[in-house]
Amino acid sequence: MSSFGSFTQFLPDETATVAAGSAVGRALTTGAVVFVVGELGAGKTTFTRGALRALGHVGSVKSPTYTLCEPYDLADAGQLCHLDLYRLSNPEELEFLGIRDYVASGAMLLIEWPSKGNGWLPAPDLQVALSESNSGRELTITALTADGEAVLTRMEDCDV
Q1: pTM above the 0.85 mark?
Q2: What is the rounded (10 degree) CA torsion for 62, 66, 69, 70?
Q3: Domains in the chain, start-ordered, CATH in brackets?
């Protein structure tokens, strides 16, 4: 089995969290699947906002806690779907959200609380883990596939 890379970085504030999300966003490609994990308030949606900004989205970015899925059509980058599965009561509900259609279309997926969708989600290329640390957050990004490793490689050119 292949071993893929990862890195960890301290994020002192919201600005740094958005910047880290932007670095990942600039490195994503069509069809990328990113699991974003962390406790409530860890900065998952803030990170996702950074990724969306890097991909050209200029509107607001809110957590899809109640809608579960917020699709964003991006001029030059196709579509990114931000899923927040915290309130998902059964993984089968992903079928009603159109998860297969998003995957088939090549949409990029940033998925918060992916454990709630076990068995129904595509395999992730990257896992982004955020945790509270001192007065900021600790970010760990782990590549889980060759495509995820390619994202990390592209990120080396970015300031994270």
Answers
A1: yes
A2: -30
A3: 6-155 (3.40.50.300)
Taking the alpha carbons at both ends of the chain, their separation in whole angstroms is 28
- Nearest Cα neighbor of 100 from 74, 72, 69 is 69
Residue that the structure tokens 């490609």 belong to = 29
Indicate the length of the chain as a whole number: 160
Task: Kindly give the confidence (pLDDT) of every residue in the chain, 160 residues in length, as a single tens digit, with 9 standing for 90 and above.
Answer: 457 899 899 999 999 999 999 999 999 999 999 999 999 889 999 999 999 999 988 888 887 777 788 889 887 778 999 999 998 889 888 888 888 899 999 999 999 999 999 988 999 999 999 999 888 999 999 999 999 999 999 987 555 5
